[in-house]
UniProtKB/TrEMBL annotation, chain A:
Residues 60-258 form the ABC transmembrane type-1 domain. Keywords: Cell membrane, Membrane, Transmembrane, Transmembrane helix, Transport. It is found in: Cell membrane. One of its GO terms (biological process) is transmembrane transport. InterPro entries: Bact_Polyamine_Transport, MetI-like, MetI-like_sf. It comes from Neoroseomonas lacus. It comes from the Bacteria. Belongs to the binding-protein-dependent transport system permease family. CysTW subfamily. GO terms for cellular component: plasma membrane. The lineage of its organism: Bacteria, Pseudomonadati, Pseudomonadota, Alphaproteobacteria, Acetobacterales. The chain crosses the membrane at residues 7-30, 64-85, 97-123, 135-158, 178-200, 207-233, 239-259. This is Putrescine ABC transporter permease PotI. It is a multi-pass membrane protein. Pfam families: BPD_transp_1.
Automatic annotation (TrEMBL), chain B:
Keywords: Cell membrane, Membrane, Transmembrane, Transmembrane helix, Transport. GO terms for biological process: transmembrane transport. Belongs to the binding-protein-dependent transport system permease family. CysTW subfamily. This is Putrescine ABC transporter permease. It comes from Neoroseomonas lacus. One of its GO terms (cellular component) is plasma membrane. It is found in: Cell membrane. Residues 63-269 form the ABC transmembrane type-1 domain. The keyword Calcium does not apply. It is a multi-pass membrane protein. CDD domains: TM_PBP2. Signal peptide: none annotated. It holds the Pfam family BPD_transp_1.
Length: 265, 276
């Protein structure tokens, strides 16, 4: 067998390994059978059951709100951090600054979760804030995590953009703020958007940190899903999987089509 | 200068409160003494937490098991990632984008859902056992789930893209004429791979290995949902000490121990990343 054939076959096997469980999860969401991953004829009953499950719907809406807030905060913080690292040279404390902003990238989730919970407990006992734990503490934790990723993306983008455009604007009399708004911001906008999306996804996907820093009133979707999987699989998990995969897939296809259209103009 | 301060000051404040302070508090609580109050510790300068870790073989085993499982996961990921990265790198540009999208899309669909899918495939009434029994290969369901193998499959599946991406980036930079030269000089595909591709991509392979190894060493969710009860990895033990035994000092000491152990691979990874 030639090398090309072997590589193609092995690659196809790799993709099958990656995708087969996901496709089966989605496919069996349309099965009427009570036992997940058993075919009992076509049915949408598990989607109806999912829509009627208040716990899941509430958790999903809470998760979406936390992820939106955390990603937006992460873009502000991570954007400023990436800007500082790329543009301010060797400012005082730069090494410590870089280590602190990057720490959540490399820390194990259990360590981040535990240490943030201990912080919230200590803060509450000293200052009375935050009163109890829940959505707010999860949002703060996820913003810290997301900012680390945004900073990397923004710093990389700024290092490869041309500073002379900004300088030219300022030579022509633009204030630093106007130069930033009219020149730099449009240049780094794609990085900010990508960073926002990354922080949003990380927040929606996190169960470990959220389990540590949340309280009884703050059950996120991954926390609810984790509890469901611990008790045993139900076809509702399949239905949720189908909603997420089909939803994410169509958003991505739409985005690709829009990009292609704007490219061809 | 004023502008600089306005940009950096809020970030500094945030990082000191939400990154530096938690680390300091973690250390303080690792040195505290367990107590039956709320919260369940009394501040002290005590090494009881660390002494518990050193004395009880259970904790050392948990760390060693976690390191072994993380190394096996990273190795498994690299074995599958090599041909995938090679296939994607040599595809035509349009197709390459599609393959990369197929690689990253599972990452966007939620990792717990993928674990759920594997549970549905591997459990006793699962899809694989259903197929095996329908084909008459086995009469009773095989105990596939809640085994070390199931846990490894779940972890390799979760972390696979992290191993493919650095290899793919290195292979794109690889000069294709090197492989052709090797072939012209009579090297078979296997020889060309071992003598050309492997040495050139070794740093990227090491980066991919560490990118999987570092998070896998602290993994909690997959061992908990797919592993056997006796697979006490350090992430799982930390969780139990905290949530079930309410022994905060031991949990904090365990977190610091895990952190210290990971410092070497983390520094190694950062050095690999900083290479020109």
């Amino acid at each position: 067998m030639t090398r090309g054939r072997f590589v193609t076959l092995a690659m196809a096997a790799g993709f099958a390994f990656l995708w087969l469980p996901i496709l089966l999860l989605v496919g069996y969401a349309f099965s009427a059978d009570r036992i997940p991953f058993q075919w009992g004829g076509f049915s949408l009953r598990w989607f109806a059951a999912l829509a009627a499950d208040d716990r899941v719907i509430e958790a999903a809406s809470l998760s979406l709100r936390i992820a939106t807030g955390a990603a937006s905060l992460a873009v502000l913080l991570g954007g400023a951090a990436g800007w500082g690292l790329a543009r301010y040279g060797r400012f005082r404390g730069r090494a410590l600054f870089g280590a602190l902003i990057g720490a959540p990238l490399v820390l194990p989730e259990v360590v981040t979760g535990l240490s943030l919970l201990l912080l919230f407990v200590a803060l509450e006992s000293v200052t009375g804030w935050p009163a109890g734990r829940g959505a707010l503490t999860v949002l703060l934790a996820h913003a810290t995590l997301g900012a680390a990723f945004v900073a990397v993306v923004v710093q990389a983008r700024l290092t490869e953009t041309d500073r002379s455009l900004e300088e030219a604007a300022m030579d022509l009399g633009a204030t630093p703020f106007i130069a930033f708004r009219t020149i730099t911001l449009p240049l780094i906008a794609p990085a900010l958007a990508a960073g926002w999306l990354l922080a949003f996804t990380l927040s929606l996907d996190d169960v470990v940190i959220a389990s540590f820093v949340s309280g009884p009133a703050g059950t996120t979707l991954p926390m609810a899903l984790f509890a469901m999987l611990r008790l045993g699989l139900t076809p509702e998990v399949n239905a949720l999987g189908a909603v997420v995969v089909i939803g994410v897939g169509s958003v991505l296809i739409l985005a690709a089509l829009l990009l292609r259209r704007s490219d061809s103009r | 200068m004023k502008g600089r301060l306005a940009v950096l000051l809020p970030v500094w404040a945030w990082l000191l409160v939400f990154v530096a302070a938690p680390a300091a508090i973690l250390l303080a609580i690792a040195l505290a003494e367990a107590d039956s109050g709320v919260p369940p510790f009394r501040l002290a300068w005590s090494l009881t937490g660390f002494a518990t870790l050193a004395e009880d073989r259970y904790y050392l085993d948990a760390v060693l098991t976690a390191l072994r499982i993380a190394a096996m996961t990273a190795t498994g990921c690299l074995l599958i990632a090599y041909p995938m990265a090679m296939g994607i790198a040599r595809a035509a540009p349009g197709r390459r984008m599609l393959l990369l999208a197929l690689l990253m899309l599972p990452f966007w669909t939620g990792f717990l859902l993928r674990v759920g899918a594997w549970i549905g495939l591997l459990r006793d009434q699962g899809w694989i056992n259903g197929m095996l029994m329908a084909l008459g290969i086995t009469e009773a369901p095989l105990p596939l789930l809640y085994s070390e193998g199931a846990m490894l499959v779940g972890m390799v599946h979760s972390y696979l893209p992290f191993a493919v991406l650095p290899l793919f980036a290195a292979l794109l930079r690889l000069d294709p004429t090197l492989g052709e030269a090797a072939a012209d000089l009579g090297a078979g595909p296997a020889t060309a791979f071992v003598t050309v591709t492997l040495p050139v991509t070794a740093p990227a392979a090491a980066a991919g290995f560490l990118l999987v190894f570092i998070p896998a060493a602290g993994e909690f969710v997959i061992p908990e949902l797919m592993g056997p009860p006796e697979a006490q990895l350090v992430g799982r033990v930390l969780w139990q000490e905290f949530f079930q035994n309410h022994d905060w000092p031991v949990a904090a000491a365990l977190a610091l121990a895990l952190l210290l152990l990971l410092l070497v691979p983390i520094r190694l990874f950062q050095r690999l990343e900083a290479r020109p």
